[in-house]
Structure formats: C-alpha cells, structure tokens
C-alpha cells in the first residue's frame, strides 16, 4: 500500500518513492526496447543492397554530438543538485542548459540524417538503412520527449508549481534524461565506432 | 542507505546518504569526456587487431555506462528494489541481444 509523505510523495513498503521505483522499472523495460533495435542493427549492418553503408558515417561529427549529450548529463545532475538545495535560480539555469544541449544534439542528428539521405542512405534502400534510421530515430524521439519534459519543468518552476510530491519531478525527469544518455553511449560505441 | 519511520505516518522512509558534491560531478564529467576522446582515438588506430579494438571499445563503453548510472543517476545510493528492477531489464536485454544475434546469424539454426 502506498502512503503519501510531505517531501517524497507516495512511498512503498520499502520506504522509497514509488514513482521513482516505477521509473526504474520503466527504464529497465526500455533496455529491452533499445537492445532489440541494436541487435537488429548488428544483424543487418552488412546488408546494404549495394547502397551506402557505414562509410558515410562522419565519426568526428558524431563524436562532438556524443560529447554534447554527455555534458547534458552533467548539467542535468547539477539541476537536480540545485533542486535538492531548493535553489530555484540555479535549477532553472541548469535545466535551460540541459534543454539547449539536447536541442543541439537533435540539430546534429537532423543534419546527419539529411546528409545521409543526400548520399543515398535511406530507410527504403536496404536493411542496413532501415535498421540504422529506426534505431537512431527512436533514440532521437526519446531525446525530443526529454527536451519537452525539461521545458515543462522550466515553465512549472517559473510559475512556482514544481512540487516534489506530485506528478513528475526533476529527479524523475533527470533519470529519464540520463537513461537517454547511456543509450547513446551504447549506440555510439556499437553502431558508429565499431563499424568504422 | 538506512530506513527509518516517518514522523507522522509511521511508515518507513528512505534516507539517502549524501549525494556527491558539485565538484565530484564535474570530475566525473571530465573523466567521461576523456574516456570518449580515448574511444575515438582507439577507433582510428591503423591496423589495430579487431578483437583488441572490440574489447577496448566495449570495455570503455561499460565504464562510461556504469559511471553515468552509478553517479549521475545515483543508482549506487538507491535501495535494492530499484537496483534489481534496472538489473532485470539489463540482463533480459543482453539475453535477448545475444539470442537474436545467435538465431538470425545462423549459429542456432544449423
């Protein structure tokens, strides 16, 4: 049975916030989701049907994108740290920084996709193209959802409506954001670096 | 992590040990940046044995993964339930990963 506490919201029998426990369960299920796509990509990484393959990858560019997303995890954890200290000004600064870094990453992905399309790598050209765009596209969609959640946090914080005990809070959004980052760590290694 | 009773409800509440300092977060981010640079450098070493390349990159990837999960997501400070929930997902994902690869690459379908 869940019990409402003033600071942490509903707690389970182990005393932990059940929303946080649920978020960890959700993130565990997301591991399966992305694990399937990564396995599929590896399966089809050589099946280019005569079209472009991994040679179109621009590793220096993707490395910079990866670094940007990695640093957004730093700004997110700094936002959470400010949230724990009830420092709303610092909280908003770091949330804005995180959302901006996420947007830069998404911009880089749009640029990368556009370039690949121009070079002939498309979803309908080969199994490699399908697997690549589905995997990285779903990851990009997760980043976009994360940016939307961060923007909501910023607006709620400005209005003074960011409550710890109700709905999504900064810690839960932070967990989601860091997860998006660790998925990219795997994608960057397996899809990009190991294929060059 | 310790568990105590909540003052008004009598329910157990979870008390976290202190989270890392801001300085420690910056140190971890610097470490992650350096590891990423090493990864990229390794990928460009000419004529590097494929096995060494794979083991090196996967190893560094695991270090980055563990650093973000443990320090930035604070999993090392959380209770067993949360650790288990994430571990179950991760283990199932790895199992599915290898089964899919083994099945469709023909290893299991001889």
Topology, pairings included?
The complex is a heterodimer of chains A (196) and B (110).
Chain A: E1 3-5, E2 9-11, H1 18-44, H2 59-84, H3 88-118, H4 127-159, H5 170-192
Antiparallel strand pairs in A: 1-2
Helix pairs in contact in A: 1-4, 1-5, 2-3, 2-5, 3-4, 4-5
Chain B: E1 2-5, E2 12-15, H1 22-43, H2 50-72, H3 80-104
Antiparallel strand pairs in B: 1-2
Helix pairs in contact in B: 1-2
List keywords for this structure.
heterodimer; A: 196 residues; mainly alpha; 5 helices; 3% strand; disordered N terminus; B: 110 residues; two-stranded antiparallel sheet
Describe the structure.
The complex is a heterodimer of chains A (196) and B (110). With 196 residues, chain A is mainly alpha-helical. Chain A is built from 5 helices and 2 strands. In chain A, a hairpin with a 3-residue loop joins strand 1 (3-5) and strand 2. The longest helix of chain A has 33 residues, at 127-159. Chain A starts with a strand and ends with a helix. The relative contact order of chain A is 0.17. Chain B has helices at 22-43, 50-72, 80-104; strands at 2-5, 12-15. Chain B has a two-stranded antiparallel sheet with strand order 1-2. The longest helix of chain B has 25 residues, at 80-104. Chain B is flat and about 50 Å long. In chain B, helix 1 (22-43) packs antiparallel against helix 2 (50-72). Mean pLDDT of chain B is 82; it is low at 1-14. By secondary structure, chain B is mainly alpha-helical. Chains A and B meet through strand 1, helix 1, helix 2 and helix 5 of A and strand 2, helix 1, helix 2 and helix 3 of B.
